[in-house]
Amino acid sequence: MKAAGSFCVLLWQIIFFVGVVLESINGAQANGWLNAHATFYGVNQDPATLGGACGYGNTMLAGFGVNTAAVSGILFRGGEACGACYQVMCNYKLDPKWCLQRRAVTVSATNFCPPNNNGGWCNPPHHHFDMSMPAFLRIARQGNEGIVPVIYRRVACKRRGGVQFTLKGQSSFNMVMISNVGGSGAAKGAWIRGSRMRSGTWIPMHRNWGANWQSSIDLRNQQLSFKLTLIDGKALVFYNVVPSTWRFGQTFSSQNQFS
């Protein structure tokens, strides 16, 4: 009888623990949080060079700071997530050993975590963040070389200064890297116009890769204006943000920013 009683107590403790965990997970999902996992970039890797598949190059110069992450394909969506911001919190109830309680960090998506990387956690349909080490250590304890459960949600990006445009390409092939975008952070559409073009004429640009948009028109020796639409539908026009003396390789900061 004593053994049976102990077994019943143990069983109820297990049921209670599972119930608490499920309640926590369901509550998080109800508040807009989704489940995922997180790892971190190599210890000796400079977070200022983690532009990766978005094409940002030096993420510090692009306005993202050190709190960046490579995201799995289900989040990356062929580059649509480039520049988007996510609030990430370690799930302390699932992993109290390595998670810091009630600690969250906001990261910008600047890279792609390819399939078959990090033990397959970046494979579809996993939601995964491979974070810079400074960002990872904001939510998890140092010393864990593995993986931690997290919850996350999309949040608005708060950027310093205006949207930046970096001119790449050659002659009639214009490629523009768009960075430091606030608001939803991720561009859905981009248009360009030169100062010699007819008023009201905008040339649609197409995503080449990541945050790089292209057009096939020679706009050298012209002032350049841009129009951007974000994934949430917000749009801004950036008139004459690039002077006519521009050269490929230069970056220009606008006075306008999404909120």
Q: What do these coordinates show?
A:
The chain has 259 residues and is α+β, with helices and mostly antiparallel strands. It has helices spanning 2-30, 73-76, 133-136; strands spanning 34-40, 68-71, 85-90, 104-112, 128-131, 148-155, 164-170, 173-179, 187-194, 203-209, 212-215, 224-230, 235-242, 251-253. The radius of gyration is 22 Å and the shape is elongated.
Q: What is the global morphology?
A: elongated
> How do the strands of the widest beta sheet line up side by side?
13-12-9-10-11-8-7-14
Radius of gyration: 22 Å
Largest sheet features: 8 strands, antiparallel
Please state roughly what percent of the residues sit in beta strands, choosing from under 5%, 5-15%, 15-25%, 25-35%, 35-45% or over 45%: 25-35%
Number of strands: 14
Q: What is the string of SSEs from the N terminus onward?
A: HEEHEEEHEEEEEEEEE
**What's the N-to-C terminus distance?**
66 Å
Mean of all residue-level pLDDT scores: 86
Structural class: alpha+beta
Give the count of helical stretches: 3
Question: Which labels suit this protein?
Answer:
259 residues, alpha+beta
Write the layout of secondary structure elements.
Elements: H1 2-30, E1 34-40, E2 68-71, H2 73-76, E3 85-90, E4 104-112, E5 128-131, H3 133-136, E6 148-155, E7 164-170, E8 173-179, E9 187-194, E10 203-209, E11 212-215, E12 224-230, E13 235-242, E14 251-253
What is the compact description of this entry?
About 15% of the residues lie in helices and about 35% in strands. It is an alpha+beta fold.
